[in-house]
Amino acid sequence: MTLGLTTTVERTKRKLERVNAQAVSTFDLFLLELKSDLVASSASLATTTDKNAVLRSMLSRNPSFLDVFLVSPTGEVNLQQSRVGRSQLSQVSLSDIPSNLAVNEVYISDVQFDRQSPYIKMAIPVTDDIGLPVADLLVVVELNELWNETINVQVGDGGYAYIVEEDGQIIAFRNRRYQEAGVLLQEIIGRSPLDIARSGLNIHRGLGGKWVLAFAQRLEVVPWLTVVEQPIEEFVVVFVVVGAVWLVVVGTAIALVSNTLHFTGHRILLPLRQLQEAVQKLSSGKWNYQIRITHKDELGQLALSFQDMAHRLRDSFVNLEQSNQKMQILNDALIQSESKLTQFLEAVPVGVFVVDRTGKPYYANKRAEQLLGQGVVQSVSAENFMTVYRTYLAGTDQLYPADRQPILRALQGESSHHDDLEVVQGEQRIPLEIWGTPIYDGEGEISYAIAALQDISDRKQAEAERQRFTEQLRQLNIAYQRFVPEEFLDLLEKPSIVEVQLGDAVEKDMAVLFADIRNFTTLSEQMTPKDNFCFINAYLCRMEPAIEQHHGFIDKFIGDAIMALFPGGADDAVQAAISMLQRLTEYNQTRQRPGRPAIQIGIGINTGAVMLGTVGGKERRSSTVISDTVNLAFRLEQLTKQYQTSLLISHQTFLKLDFPHQYDIRLIDNVRVKGKTEQVSIFEVFDTDPDPLRKSKRQNRTKFEQALLFYQLKQYPEAAQLFTTYLQNNPFDIIAEIYYNRCQNYINPRGYNVQEGHED
Which residue among 103, 150, 479, 591 is least crowded, i.e. fewest CB within 10 A of its CB? Predict the structure, then answer.
């Protein structure tokens, strides 16, 4: 009797497991089809120009989709297609969607409820033509179809199936009053779905209110569980019938033994033969055969009991046949589900490769066979996986490290993704991107690992093209900078020369430097055109570093002249000018040969507001600087010829020097330049004069300034006397000699004809 009960319970449990497996397969297939649709639609959106058509197509072929959105990374709704009656949104929340979704990775949210209607959100990145994410494809999925599927699951006569989340939230149940947010399974039946899944035999009061035998199993796609429950009364009846039969048989046997001595031969042998005949009839399948024993003694009762047992066996066999038919239906459904899953895996555009828990290949779709060059190889193990399938580290002849192989890492319970792997097929190397994911059984143990493989040859080629194009742009940008300085673009606040438009301009305070070679016309007449260019370039190559090292940049070359700008101010410009004159001295030491005379330059510096911008026409443009500050700097450079000095600065520059005492500077004149009514004070910077002259100018600077003051007060005899005394100690100070001659010109106009200190 105990054996009968155990057998009946075990049979019922196996039946529940089969029904649950069918339900899990149905629910997984529902979600897999949605995920497949999102992957395919994402790929279409990456290439099509009519994105609205893609969204409309998704909505038409998926009755479970309520809303389909194309959402920007900031949550703005770019496109929306919805069922009739759904509101149009301009913004959606992306707070529950991970920001680092990989390409073709589908996110599935937790279940949410709109009253008694559960729904989920699914999202996948949409990429541009080079594989960079630009938006998210987001769908709202109604789960009423899952509710319909639970109704269709047949569990005995009064059993049922339902779906719950791991925390016990009921997702789909035939009684919708349990299908609301916050309705937890453990609060109703006292057990969580994980408790039911972990236990092999579950007997409790179920959701239908009756005592049931229950079985739970995880879904593969999402962390939900399917629970099937069958009332205990359905299989207890079978147990009672079997027990009753056994009791009748045992009782009958005892009765027969007890009454054997009391029956005569003809009251025993004949009924026994009739029973034997009945047994033979029953053995041949004639369950309706009637035993012709009319006695009401023990043998007659046995015959009746046997007749009753025969009827019960008949009913049992009928039920068994019906059960076998149902089992066949379930097996057919399982085979059909497996066939659909196989068709789905063969249809996906990526390779799918599965290994068991030992690392031995289990399944590979056709795309995986194409990418790997071979399908399932039975001799493969985790140790020789990379060797058999010839997987190498990208760009090398090194086998891919096993500790980085995604499908092998999945066997350790880790999901991973790599795109630095290549498969070698003959002379061809195929770059692959691989996602590895573990697959768990009902006990939470890893049973398989699955890898998705994608050929990224086009992406690698596009990346190489992008890098090549980027390098070309970089080289082109460097070339442009030789014509339009990067500092000029920075001042215009333009990231690239492409952004510069005709008329762009900005006003800035800065120092302007002009430098020019003395008597260049005479020098150039003695050289060929080729020698002229070689000479100019040799000179300019020595001057340019001095300007750049002091935070300036060359705005333009004007023949042999240089115009440079110093956004940092006067100190940078003066230090650059001193460095230029020092470099010129070194350069002249290399020109001490016949036909290569030493050269001299004049430098003028002014500081103030300038306008930087672009001028020109539609087809030809140039950067330039326009202002009185520029004009005065040019005039100062011209005055270096008159005063026969190398470096002149304006009083605006002098006043903006942070540390004027670190330079050798002296005031030499107040002049009125062309186009100006007010006078400009000009200063000589003599840091680069020969040491004896520089020391002499520094020691006698006070005497020079006294003489200059008398000159400016027009007390020419007194000024001439002071300059005479000054020149006795400084006979090589040309500027002092110029002022002495000017004084003599004013004292005795007929004897001298010296130009006054101004420029007309």
Answer: 479
Q: At what angle do helices 298-347 and 2-47 cross, to 10 degrees?
A: 20
Q: 241: how many CB neighbours lie within 10 A of its CB?
A: 16
> How far apart are the two ends of the chain, measured CA to CA in Å?
132
pTM: 0.43
Report the pLDDT value the prediction gives residue 316, as an integer from 0 to 100.
Answer: 65
Percent of the chain residues topping a pLDDT of 90: 20
User: What are the beta bridge partners of residue 162?
Assistant: 227
**C-alpha 345: how far from chain center:** 27
Residue ranges of alpha helices (H) inside 1-153 are 2-47, 51-61, 144-152
SS3 215: strand
Q: Alpha-carbon distance 478 to 494, whole Å?
A: 15
Residues in the chain: 760
- At residue 421, what are phi and psi to the nearest 5 degrees? -120, 140
Which two structure tokens, joined as six digits, stand for 4? 């009968």
The residue assigned the tokens 């007309």 is 760
Q: Pairing state of beta strands 361-364 and 391-393?
A: unpaired
Using the Cα atoms of residue 297, residue 303, residue 309 and residue 315 in order, give the sign of their dihedral. Answer: negative
Structure tokens at 422: 């290549």
| Angle formed at CA 350 by CA 348 and CA 355, multiple of 5 degrees | 100
pLDDT recorded at residue 485: 62
Fill in the DSSP letter of residue 602.
E
Q: Are 354 and 363 in contact (CB under 8 A)?
A: yes
Do 220 and 23 meet the contact criterion of CB atoms below 8 Å apart? no
CA–centroid distance for 239 within its chain: 62
Q: Residue 127 forms beta bridges with which residues? A: 133
At which residue do the structure tokens 């649709």 appear?
37
CB atoms inside a 10 Å sphere around CB 375: 14
Torsion-angle region of 675 (φ positive above 0: left; ψ -120 to 50: alpha; else: beta): left
31: tokens are 């979600």
Q: What is the pLDDT of residues 146-190, one digit of tens each?
A: 878 887 888 877 888 889 998 889 988 888 888 888 889 888 888
